[in-house]
Design the sequence.
């Protein structure tokens, strides 16, 4: 009986704790699916982010150090790179991410963005009659943060409108200046053409004058007919 019990226990021994091939394949599929989901979610987030706010595109807080910008961009660019996902929107998201990173790495462009965000903060405080020392500003709740982001969008849009108007005015001024220059060039060309034509007709004018003076001289040499006196 003891030998039979030993045999039964041996047959009922627990299986190895190591997962089999099917379990490994299932886990691998789940991990792949999760990665693709994360890629799709990040691509969707980037495309929906306000394009004039590079911080929002990179999902960073304003004022972060340059090193953090580089790290964030590297992680996200590797995640959504078009070569590593079949999502058709990946190229557009990747380009938008790259543009945002380039803007934040540009000192002047980043300074303009930081200034716009600071202006939005001041406008929000003015609307709500707050100061920098107000408890609400020292420890912002989610509602105030959302309001700040919305105000930032308004300021950035307003700045972009002004920038486009300036560019348009500059282009119009450049167009007027170019037209003026073209008219001056055309006037100089007409003057040159007139001078050339005048010079080319010089021999003809001289010949005509000589012919006229010759005829006049020969006419004066002829004797005038005497008129008969009546009576």
Sequence:
């Amino acid at each position: 009986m003891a030998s039979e019990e030993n045999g039964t226990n041996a047959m009922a021994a627990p299986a190895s704790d190591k997962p089999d091939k099917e379990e490994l394949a299932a886990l691998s599929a789940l991990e792949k699916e999760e990665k693709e989901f994360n890629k799709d979610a990040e691509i969707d987030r980037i495309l929906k982010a306000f394009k004039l706010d590079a911080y929002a595109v990179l999902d960073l807080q304003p004022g972060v150090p340059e090193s953090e910008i580089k790290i964030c961009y590297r992680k996200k660019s590797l995640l959504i790179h078009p070569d590593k996902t079949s999502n058709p929107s990946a190229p557009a998201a990747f380009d938008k991410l790259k543009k945002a990173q380039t803007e934040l790495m540009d000192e002047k462009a980043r300074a303009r963005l930081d200034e716009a965000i600071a202006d939005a903060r001041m406008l929000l405080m003015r609307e709500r009659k707050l100061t920098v020392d107000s408890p609400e500003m020292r420890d912002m709740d989610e509602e105030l943060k959302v309001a700040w982001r919305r105000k930032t969008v308004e300021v950035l849009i307003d700045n972009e409108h002004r920038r486009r108007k300036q560019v348009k005015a500059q282009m119009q001024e450049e167009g007027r200046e170019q037209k003026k220059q073209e008219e001056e060039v055309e006037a100089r060309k007409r003057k040159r053409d007139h001078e050339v034509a005048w010079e080319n007709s010089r021999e003809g004018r001289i010949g005509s004058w000589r012919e006229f003076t010759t005829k006049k001289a020969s006419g004066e040499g002829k004797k005038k007919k005497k008129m008969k006196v009546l009576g």
Remarks:
- The chain is about 75% helix and 0% strand.
- The chain has a mean pLDDT of 84.
- The CA atoms of residues 218 and 224 lie 13 Å apart.
